[in-house]
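User: Please fill in residues for this 186-position structure.
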């Protein structure tokens, strides 16, 4: 791929990122993406044979953005308890920055009455990466592997549930409540 191809691809994905997250997958048409990205239809289909393929790229980008934001937020933190708590704090900042729009993976999946295997697989990959973060941190605290998985899964459930509730109520109190529960179980 040439530099121009990479630039066009990036422009398409960035436009899809903004539109899918702002107005949803179903309400965003290919023609709107083409128009707002300022690319030819052939260019879009060269890089993404279908809207589904573009959505997979969007979900990958969202995962990369979250991972980068979290990595920066916990940079220099060596205590696993603090890293877990900071992950929840980072989610609060993320929600505020995105007007409580919630988790992009859950939003896309919720729009799909008949799930696309490609999109579902990418959403699961992204969610598993988040869950693995908690497993890694909890494993630094506990020795028993079944305890590690149980506690990490509980923390992940608090994290995801609080994210959804913040989206519903459009306030941070669900994350604040999840943090209180988190501190009790850690």
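Assistant: Residues filled in for all 186 positions:
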């Amino acid at each position: 791929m040439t530099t121009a191809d990479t630039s066009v691809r990036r422009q398409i994905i960035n436009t899809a990122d903004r539109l899918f997250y702002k107005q949803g997958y179903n309400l965003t048409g290919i023609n709107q993406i083409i128009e707002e990205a300022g690319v030819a239809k052939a260019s879009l289909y060269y890089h993404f044979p279908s809207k589904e393929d573009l959505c997979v790229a969007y979900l990958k980008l969202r995962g990369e953005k979250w991972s980068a934001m979290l990595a920066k937020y916990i940079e220099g933190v060596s205590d696993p308890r603090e890293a877990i708590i900071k992950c929840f704090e980072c989610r609060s900042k993320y929600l505020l920055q995105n007007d409580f729009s919630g988790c992009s993976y859950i939003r896309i999946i919720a729009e799909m009455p008949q799930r696309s295997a490609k999109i579902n697989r990418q959403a699961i990959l992204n969610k598993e990466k988040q869950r693995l973060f908690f497993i890694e941190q909890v494993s630094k605290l506990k020795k028993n592997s079944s305890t590690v998985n149980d506690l990490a899964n509980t923390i992940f459930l608090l994290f995801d549930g609080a994210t959804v509730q913040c989206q519903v109520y459009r306030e941070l109190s669900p994350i604040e409540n999840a943090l209180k529960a988190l501190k009790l179980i850690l």
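For context: Residues 1-49 form a domain with the Arc Repressor Mutant, subunit A fold (CATH 1.10.10.60).
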